[in-house]
From TrEMBL:
The protein, known as: AraC-like DNA-binding protein
Keyword set, alphabetical order: DNA-binding, Transcription, Transcription regulation
Organism lineage string: Bacteria, Pseudomonadati, Bacteroidota, Chitinophagia, Chitinophagales
Domain of life from the UniProt record: Bacteria
All residue ranges annotated as the HTH araC/xylS-type domain in the record: 186-284
Isomerase is among the record's keywords: no
GO terms for MF: DNA-binding transcription factor activity; sequence-specific DNA binding
Length: 287
């Protein structure tokens, strides 16, 4: 059960060296790491050895050896496990030198995209050896102050992400869940992230692609297994849970922030999508 916390959930502030850092997981401990928290940067957590569990956005995952978790900015997570390995983070400012870079990261076969359902990536022995070499190279380079070269670190990081992408595809093929891809769905994700609080109609998103709502739904259904409305509702529910669990905001305040005009309707929406009322969810989190 999550710890009883009634304050606004913080964005964790750690003594990072700059726009990128890498460190052993054993050193990744402070007053927040074992409590629910979130970051304003991308984070990679690689368990070389692990036993226990890891919560990401209110879902607990069993932690095992050779397991990789990829976190986007804003995701709530909590570590409750024994761990050896590495974590690294990088900011948008570090990685996104230009527009092409941003499109490349978001297009890493949806490495940091969760429309197919979030989950850790199991790493093969050979890839683990490559990861270890790359983490050592990255750590060595960032410790070469003041001559540390951002471009060199970024190339090592790109290699790490490409290997992670390959492992994610291998995981999907082994579970008979091949990942399909459509660039329009990547663009849709960005639109949903920008407008989910204010635009709740499929027509708005379909117009952005000059498509009919029916056609856009067909595209998202083929690629993600979900309709545009379902993807939108998933995002609204997630943000609702984050606010209910980790803020002082009233249900009415959360309702208005998420673009609902009627708190009673918002409560019905939340219960229809979760099976529990907003107030009951909040009370459950604090037991």
């Amino acid at each position: 059960m999550l710890a009883n916390r009634s304050i606004d959930i913080p964005y964790q502030q750690l003594p990072f060296k700059g726009q990128f850092n890498i460190s052993p997981l054993g050193a990744f401990r402070n007053e927040l790491t074992d409590q629910p928290h979130r970051h304003d940067h991308f984070q990679i957590i690689w368990f070389i050895k692990g036993k226990g569990r890891h919560m990401v956005d209110f879902v607990w995952y069993d932690v095992d050896d050779n397991m990789l978790f990829l976190l986007r900015p804003g995701q709530v997570h909590q570590l409750d496990c024994e761990r050896e390995g590495y974590f690294m983070y990088f900011t948008e400012q570090f990685y996104f030198t230009n527009k092409h870079d941003k499109e490349t990261l978001y297009d890493f076969s949806n490495l940091f995209d969760h429309w197919h359902g979030y989950g850790p990536i199991t790493i093969s022995e050979n890839t683990g050896k490559s990861f270890l070499g790359l983490t050592e190279l990255m750590a060595r380079e960032i410790n070469c102050a003041p001559s540390c070269n951002k471009g060199i670190v970024k190339h090592y990081l790109n290699a790490f992400l490409l290997l992670a992408e390959r492992e994610k595809k291998r995981n999907a093929s082994e579970t008979m869940m091949p990942l399909s891809h459509d660039g329009r769905v990547v663009q849709l994700r960005r639109l949903l992230e920008q407008h989910y609080q204010t635009e709740h109609q499929v027509t708005f998103y379909a117009n952005a692609f000059a498509l009919t709502p029916k056609r856009l739904n067909e595209i998202t259904k083929d690629t993600t297994g979900r309709t545009v409305t379902e993807l939108l509702h998933d995002r609204i529910v997630l943000e609702s849970k984050r606010n209910l669990a980790f803020s002082h905001k009233s249900v009415k305040e959360i309702c208005y922030e998420l673009g609902f005009e009627d708190p009673a309707y918002f409560s019905r929406f939340f219960k229809n999508n979760t099976g529990i009322s907003p107030q009951d969810f909040r009370e459950m989190m604090f037991k």
